[in-house]
Automatic annotation (TrEMBL):
CDD domains: HTH_XRE. PROSITE patterns: HTH_CROC1. Residues 1-21 are annotated as: Disordered. Gene3D superfamilies: lambda repressor-like DNA-binding domains. One of its GO terms (molecular function) is DNA binding. This is DUF739 family protein. It holds the Pfam family HTH_3.
Length: 81
């Protein structure tokens, strides 16, 4: 859970949980966004930010609702830092 630009928080555990629930691997997701497995893993852990385009691809691949997208990528309920 890391701070994104503008102070928003990313809920990495929620993203991982939904990804696993949907039967997708980190490798699957990395291929979809055109990044290496290592880079995707860092993004999922919140160490590297997802671009807006990558967030859109992830949302579509995991069939996320707008509420889920907001809860994952813009979770203001998480502690800052």
């Amino acid at each position: 859970m890391k701070t994104r630009k503008g102070g928003e928080q990313m809920n990495s555990s929620k993203l991982k949980g939904i990804r696993v629930e949907k039967g997708k691997t980190q490798k699957n997701m990395a291929e979809l966004i055109g990044k290496s497995l290592v880079t995707y893993s860092k993004k999922e852990r919140g160490e590297v930010e997802f671009s807006n385009e990558e967030m859109s691809i992830v949302a579509k691949a995991l069939d996320l609702t707008s509420d889920q997208v907001n809860a994952i990528f813009f979770d203001d309920n998480l502690p800052k830092g």
